[in-house]
Known about the structure:
The protein is 18% helix and 26% strand. It is an alpha+beta fold and 291 residues long. The chain folds into two domains: 34-132, Alpha-Beta Plaits; 144-286, Alpha-Beta Plaits, CATH 3.30.70.660. Strands 1, 2, 3, 4, 5, 6, 7, 8, 9 and 10 form a ten-stranded mixed sheet that branches. The chain is globular, with a radius of gyration of 24 Å.
Amino acid sequence: MCQRQPSQRRCDQRGPNCRINDQAIGNENSVVAALVDRTFKLTIAYDGTDYSGWQIQPQKPTIQGMLERALVKLTRQRVHVTGSGRTDAGVHALAQVASLRTPNWRASATDLLNAMNVNLPPTIVVTDAVDAPDDFHAIRDAIGKRYRYQVQVGGQRSVFDYRYRWHLYHDIDLDAVSEAAARFEGKHDFASFQAVGSPRKTTTRNVKVCEIIREPSMSHGGILFSVEIEADGFLYNMVRNIVGTLIEVGKGKYPPQHIDNVIEAANRDAAGPTAPPQALFLKRVDYLPFA
């Protein structure tokens, strides 16, 4: 009679962090695989209109809460999802990045993406999922971000776009706004643009790009433009406070050179109002390639 020899089960579809525990190999009829934690990097798009921001809050719908709820269904355990940043209520994301660790997912990262999307509302979509190094952390490893803030000047309000733009009903000098925006570029102390009550160890940030992007006008009139800001990091409400200050320049309340004075003041009272949240999108989060 031919006798089967004990063999070690391969781990070829379980990602780079999966391994077999030799002590778990039993008799010739049984092989038990012991899995270690796997780390995943997720890219997520969401419409933040109906959510109280990214971070979990009691009795309120949040992006993080919805993601973790979906993962409980899939892994039968609580899995903490760490986002690259905590977007506020009403703020959207085209490509938020999150990290998570779990020992209870044996299929591919693509299967995880598909399974999560089945269990998420239509306003949240995981657009990419990859296995990541064990020490990958969405906040700590981020080296830069880019935000987009959308504005409409004049024209008729669009029932489809109003949730995603700041609609202004007064004239705006876009040339002045563009000149003012360029003055934010470079390494500066952005204390004037940090929300009160949210101190950081340092308020110095390096803004690589701050530009005005003009868009085609809509059929029912109005001027469309976006403010795009890319930096190595952002303070709380920094983008919305910058946009609010730029609009003050666009109204003619201050000249573009006023931005230099606001930066130098390092005082929130020196800057303009905070722009509303619904027009803000987290466009991109940058990381070094995995080794």
